[in-house]
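PT: before anyone asks, these are the final sequences, not the draft ones from last week. 983 residues across everything. Please model them as a single complex and drop the result in this thread when it's through.
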Amino acid sequence: MEELALYIHIPFCKSKCYYCDFNSFANKDEIISKYIKYLIREIKLYSSTMKDYYLKTIFIGGGTPSFIEGKYIYEILEEVYKHFNIDNLEELSIEINPKTIDLEKLRIYKDIGINRISVGVQSLNNNILKKIGRIHTTEDFLKTYKLLRKVGFSNINVDLISGLPDQTVESILSNLKIVNNLEVEHISFYSLIIEEGTKFYTWYNKGELILPNEDEERDMYHKGIKYLKSKGYHHYEISNLSKEKYECMHNLFYWKLKPYIGIGIGAHSNIRGLRYWNTADFNKYFAYIDKGRLPIEGNETIDKTMEMAEYLILGLRLIDGVYKKDFINRFNISVDEIYGEVLNKHSNNGLLTIDGDNIRLTEKGIDLSNLIFVDLLPE
Amino acid sequence: MHKDKQKRIRNFSIVAHIDHGKSTLADRLIEKTGLITAREIHEQMLDNMELEKERGITIKLKAIRLIYKAKDGEEYILNLIDTPGHVDFNYEVSRSLAACEGAVLVIDATQGIEAQTLANVYLALDQDLEIVPIINKIDLPSARPDEVKNEVEDVIGIDCSDAPLISAKNGINIEDVLEKIVSDVPAPTGDIEGPLKALIFDSYYDSYKGVVAYIRVFEGSIEPGMDIEMMSTGKVYEVVEVGINASKQISVDKLEAGDVGYVTASMKDVKDARVGDTITSHKNPANAPLPGYKEVVPMVYCGIYPAEGEDFNSVREALEKLQVNDASLIFEPETSVALGFGFRCGFLGLLHMEIIQERLEREFNLNIIATAPSVIYKVKKSNGEILSIQNPTNLPPESEIEYMEEPIVEASIMTPSDYVGAVMELCQDRRGTFKNMEYLEETRVVMHYELPLNEVIYDFFDALKSKTRGYASLDYDLKGYALSELVKLDILINEELVDAFSIIVHKDKAYERGRSIAEKLKDAIPRHQFAVPIQAAIGSKIIARETVRALRKDVLAKCYGGDISRKKKLLEKQKEGKKRMRQIGSVEVPQEAFLSVLKYDDKK
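LR: through. Structure below.
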């Protein structure tokens, strides 16, 4: 038996945020119920093939899972429980938006076993929230947060973004201070990426979107991390911090290259040496499932060379880095034999710390991690 | 009988400025004479190479035989000899014109005469060809055929009163052109019984036949089994095959005075059948070759190096393959401190250079780095030694140089008169000496300048186009060498001299060029983990400095299960980009950087 993580994609939102390039849609409310039916059928399709796995974590992401009715979440998880081994299920997360959540939904979540809530907050400045297309305010978040505690959730994540328009080091630090005072268990602290296909991308390229410059953004990131660390948060991944023992187990599956499957449109899976992904198109998704087959659209075989590269690329995202002995245990070959030259180069460059058995990014290495990752990719 | 056949032969070329419709007209003539059907014409029959099509330029010339039944009831053999349309290939143009009795001059009814039209017409007139003017593109709304006719009459002095008005593109009045060729182009003369004299006007290498030489027979005849002699080298070969080019190559029993065709004789190298050479009979040789043979000499040189990860040998093999069909391309191995092993290559001109570079990349899939083009400088050292320098790196130290000379060209620039000021400014800026200016008509002038070739090969052409909104055209010829105060400009990246960027410039231009190169490199070199200083220097004196700021951030903030494939693609793209970089010391320099320093800067 091997442990497994399950991702469930809910691609619906009340409205699309300006920076968001996720596979999510506003104004597709009429197909929500149909989508849930098919999602449930996809879960069934997996039942027979997952006998040698047990679920360790489930993550319901989006989109905005809290946007759809609570009963749907209930039905989905009920179906999962029927078909998967959940004897060792430990972490069950859902993403919510402060504007689309209420007491009733939270109670349903609690009833069906959800034990971790991830709140998309992004900023605690109302003018910034408006500028980036969020539908909620700081006050909405604070209200939601109280509700979460009231219902009894004891593992809460808050997403925050640095490098947003009008943001300053001071404003981000004051946001973090609030979050710290609320004693949230987990903080995802991202730096903004301008993704293709977003409104931000268009505006940015037209020169209509003014963002903090690189130096300012790095300043926000490093000062933010420093502050949170001083308050007892554990910086465990490039963009993630948590109170002790509250690291997101589900995401650790990704970074540690452990098996996971994703269901729903556009969801990715990585299991048994194969990475594959579902179609991102609703109609194709429905059609595949109607034919009784998994809605898979593409795949990539991860050969050993690629797996070793990914192991390091993803593993080095963790602040604790990777261990040479883990590498040799997994691949039966020493990391130095294959990557010695690259690792030494970047150790000399000041991007990596090689400390006996342990390899990890330096502070500068975090900022410039792609320089290392590019060298790790196979030719 | 034979004399009778000769009377029905017409050997002609089409001359035109680029884009004036030469190749399209050739297609129409081919179509009209029923050699092949319209369906078989892939756009432009005569332009074989992919690159030629893209650039709309004919590089290698070819000949094709058309059969035309004229209105007088006779069947005529029309040999159409295609010519390259660019100044770099002037010599090839002159040789193919030498194979003809007439030239069809295509003039765009909307544009009128351009510098290259004139240059080619003069080449044709030099060969005493009958010029048959044709006004093309008459169906365009902006066509002004009468004005253009007047212009041709005024400028070239040929009668245009009954010049066919055609549209090659839409097939209008094509028959008029054919009739004109029959009536106006003289039939060849030449003694069929005399000693063989045949002019090579093109050659290429065929892996089955060896070198195939295109020839025009002027005297005597040539047939398989005959021993022929190349008059420039004295080399003797036995003819294997002679033939003509119709829709495909057709072998014939013999070619006689007046004929155009091809010959194969187990020649292994295109250098054995040099354009312009005369073929004669080994047994019964002609007493003198046909006039005009000259060995083509490269005017422009540059270094060609394999990019990172590319193999030196594959670059050499590719150059060798290109050379098989291009006797004017020369190369020899050289080494650069910055770029390692590569080749110094010589070209007829800038276009020739660009074409070769593109073919290396496209046809051979090679990643190459080309250094800045250079001309050949003559250096007289204080010890009396005279050097020819085509690689700036080889320039001796200033203290050892008594004087230097640089090549000068005679340039004619044709431009609408509105841009005279802009052109003068440009030529002055490029150290030109004004010779004279002629008005072709009220609104068009041709300006004659003497310009240093090293200014022309820099960004002159782009600058000229930019300053005249694309209306000006340029033609030039090497005039000779002149004394000049030249210096070597070096570029240092991260405190290290990069020899591949060194150029020789006039001392008055050194500061400006140094600054401009440093600025361009600053934009072209990606940011590194550390700040990268870029300096321009003459000797030990730094004359310009820029800095590529250190990279602060190159990180994927988010990477979860669904992102991995996509993020990996981003990294792969980044890695691919790195492959096109050249590691110079600790700095990665993209191939584009080498190009960017040569490009005309519109902002100036």
